[in-house]
Design goal:
Strand order of the largest sheet of chain A: 1-2
Number of helices of chain A: 7
Strand content of chain A: 5-15%
Largest sheet of chain A: 2 strands, antiparallel
CATH superfamily of chain B: FAD/NAD(P)-binding domain
Helix content of chain B: 10-25%
Oligomer: heterodimer
Largest interface: A-B, 53 and 60 residues
Radius of gyration of chain A: 16 Å
Largest sheet of chain B: 8 strands, mixed
Structural class of chain A: mainly alpha
CATH architecture of chain B: 3-Layer(bba) Sandwich
Number of strands of chain A: 4
Structural class of chain B: alpha/beta
Distance between the termini of chain A: 30 Å
Distance between the termini of chain B: 21 Å
CATH topology of chain B: FAD/NAD(P)-binding domain
Helix content of chain A: 40-55%
Radius of gyration of chain B: 23 Å
CATH class of chain B: Alpha Beta
Number of domains of chain B: 1
Chain lengths: ~180, ~525
């Protein structure tokens, strides 16, 4: 279900360096994608990944476990989870490629394939706020308001689904460069 | 005392203060409560101490309504019940939970609802029932069990959804557990291989005697001051409908309610999820070793398990019926993703890690739902008879499109609550989840592979399984036009006949019924002890 409650896009565009961090972040590319402030969730995703990746080796990313605790199966599932290396998406930074996969499905299911329009529906950034917290708060609010998008049965917060779609579309646009 | 009815002489006449028909959870609990009570109790059981095919075949009937099936396999009516000492506790999974306060309330949005007693009335009897079902105690608070198990319940508590606790005891076969004590009791006689055929009456207002027979041709009578029908949700109705001495419609059935409102718990493979909690918290089973796969348990268990449910406030405000969600952790063989196509567990788990909490476990979701009472869902008698000449039953189980819609709406509420609290993300594919394979190559045993096929989602026709929970066929009501028994479980129309078991449930609720069956049986025992004193 797509329930596009209009987000507040009237807040001033932030150009603060604190709002967009990350070694592979390209402000120019982000600004090309849309207003920098509206990218909060997308950037939050990228920064979040980078933060986690810095703190842990890939082998420590929590594996998905099975009901029996069978070692072989746990290892298999864990491997599926942990061997996915982050890739760089121009304008976004490093992201888990499975988000790109999911974002492609979001685009296919919703037909929403215009980055600018998608960004217009994403939350605006607040200066000095933590991108991850901002993203989590927006996701929580979406679920509380039943503002969800259903992808292959998965009930996703509209904002996170659209953020994944933006990432997938950005990757598609920048396929010749770093993605 | 334990007597094999096949050793009696035909034409015998047995007497007792209280005759209990059926040696299952309700009947055995009542007998245990009456140990050394001074009352002469005769407990009539159709089977022996072990299952035998000829006796089990007496359960055979026709199902003409909704398919009676587990989530994995079709079953026959005689497989949903067990006809030997201990009754259906012989295959009981041991899940215990009291009904919720809202279950007892009249709900305007439902056609028929409401009990003539409330949650508080039954609370002391649930406490006492703990000793017979052998769970730890009557404390079902989440806080207590988080402490006892050392794991956290799903951290999902919203204005619509909350976690709750099952206490689990397995195996708990009442016949095995209590047979010796009952055999040794001076005031209790357990009569095995004794099949109740007819509640004899002259005027329809009282039972004069019970006609009983064995499969070996022995026939005899039992006369008692009081009779309790405790043969199960289907057989209780069957015996009443087959007792036609006074009225061809059956005993106590002048309002044509006996057998109506047959209710089951709708079971649905609801989907998948990725969750922040780890495996131990999701499985939540402690105090013993257990394996759950393909709907079966192996090993002994005494512990608890967490699940999520729509809370009472939501059921009232949203005018809906009960729904609970259990999390059963699936498994993944080499090289097979959780789903072959579309968005996968891994994809959504990655997204969740970016926008909230990092997932640690994936699980498939099994939902259990209450169905609205439906007078057209009913047990009747067929034209065929069993080996003892009793009419076989015809079950016309029905649930409605509205029941399905409520399930889907409730699942969506659950999914949004899970997302809002950041605990996980849920894929709702009711009926699109398959238990595909039993892969012994990976763990050696008890490993079930689940697969999701989103393309198969049919919200109007998804498969629904049963819980072997046969309820409401002699439902309790103060109004004889709405129910068969009164608040004391006595037949409205028959002065010396009471009914025990889930057939007296006025609504089904979502709690597994055995714990409440035992509580109601204890309550009835107190009533009869006072009455027969």
């Amino acid at each position: 279900m797509v329930n596009a409650d209009a987000p507040d896009t009237s807040a001033p565009v932030s150009d603060s360096p604190t709002a967009v961090e990350g070694p592979d972040f390209s402000r120019r590319q982000v600004l090309r994608l849309g207003s920098g402030g509206a990218l909060a969730l997308v950037i939050g995703a990228g920064v979040g990944w980078l933060d986690r990746s810095r703190n842990r080796g890939p082998e420590s990313v929590s594996p998905l476990r099975d009901t029996t605790g069978a070692t072989t199966t746990s290892t298999t599932v864990g491997t599926t989870t942990t061997t996915t290396e982050p890739i760089t998406v121009s304008g976004i930074g490093e992201v888990d490629p499975r988000i790109i996969t999911l974002g492609q499905r979001v685009v296919e299911v919703t037909g929403e394939n215009d980055i600018a329009e998608l960004l217009a529906q994403l939350p605006t950034a607040e200066r000095d706020s933590d991108p991850l917290e901002r993203a989590a708060a927006r996701v929580r609010a979406d679920f509380e308001q039943s503002d969800t998008i259903t992808v292959d049965g998965w009930i996703l917060a509209a904002s996170e689904a659209r953020a994944a779609a933006v990432i997938a579309l950005a990757c598609s646009e920048s396929v010749q460069s770093t993605c | 005392m334990l007597t094999d009815a096949r050793t009696l002489r035909s034409g015998s006449a047995l007497e007792a203060d209280l005759c209990i028909i059926g040696g299952g959870a309700a009947g055995i609990s009542m007998a245990m409560e009456l140990l050394n009570s001074g009352l002469r109790v005769l407990l009539i059981e159709s089977g022996g101490t072990e299952s035998d095919a000829a006796t089990q075949a007496l359960m055979t009937g026709d199902s003409i309504g909704a398919p009676v099936t587990t989530l994995d396999n079709p079953v026959t009516l005689d497989q949903t019940r067990l006809r030997y000492f201990g009754g259906t506790t012989n295959h009981w999974a041991g899940y215990c939970r009291p009904l919720a306060p809202v279950d007892f309330e009249h709900r305007d949005h439902l056609g028929v609802s409401g009990w003539p007693i409330n949650h508080t009335d039954l609370a002391p009897y649930w406490d006492r029932a703990t000793q017979w079902v052998r769970i730890t105690d009557g404390d079902f608070s989440v806080d207590t069990w988080e402490r006892r198990l050392g794991v956290k319940a799903p951290p999902v508590e919203t204005d619509a959804v909350e976690p709750f606790v099952f206490q689990v005891t397995f195996p708990t076969k009442f016949g095995d557990l209590y047979g010796a004590e009952l055999t040794a009791a001076a005031n209790i006689e357990v009569l095995l291989h004794a099949n109740a055929l007819n509640l004899a009456t002259d005027n329809g207002r009282s039972v004069t005697h019970l006609d009983v027979a064995t499969l070996r041709g022995v026939s005899f009578k039992v006369t008692a001051r009081a009779y309790v029908l405790a043969a199960g949700g289907i057989e209780n109705a069957r015996l009443l409908l087959a007792s036609v001495d006074h009225d061809p419609a059956g005993l106590g059935n002048s309002n044509d309610l006996v057998g109506r409102f047959f209710s089951e718990h709708l079971q649905i493979y609801a989907g998948f999820g990725v969750f922040e909690s780890d495996f131990d918290a999701l499985s939540g089973l402690g105090g013993g070793e257990v394996a759950i796969a393909q709907g079966r348990h192996a090993g002994h268990l005494h512990g608890a398990k967490f699940a999520l449910g729509l809370n009472d406030a939501h059921l009232r405000s949203a005018a809906t019926t009960g729904l609970e969600l259990q999390f059963l952790v699936g498994s993944l063989p080499d090289g097979v993703p959780f789903q072959a196509r579309g968005a996968t567990v891994g994809d959504v788990g990655a997204l969740m890690a970016h926008t909230g909490s990092e997932p640690r476990t994936a699980a498939y979701l099994q939902a259990l739902a209450e169905q609205e009472l439906n007078p057209h869902s009913r047990v009747t008698l067929g034209s065929r008879t069993d080996a003892l000449g009793m009419p076989q039953i015809v079950l016309d189980w029905q649930y409605t499109a509205a029941d399905r819609r409520r399930v889907v709406a409730g699942l969506k509420v659950m999914a949004e609550a899970i997302g809002a609290t950041g605990w996980g993300r849920v894929q709702l594919v009711p009926g699109g989840v398959h238990a595909d394979a039993h892969d012994s190559a990976i763990s050696g045993e008890f490993l079930t592979v689940f697969r999701s096929v989103p393309e198969e989602i049919d919200l109007r026709g998804f498969p629904v399984g049963v819980g072997f929970h046969h309820m409401c066929t002699t439902r309790m009501s103060d109004d004889p036009a709405q129910g068969v028994v009164d608040a004391d479980c006595r037949m409205h129309e028959v002065d010396n006949l009471w009914v025990a078991g889930s057939s007296v449930f006025a609504t089904g609720g979502t709690a597994t019924p055995t714990f409440t069956i035992v509580a109601l049986a204890i309550r009835l025992t107190d009533h009869l002890r006072d009455l027969l004193g």
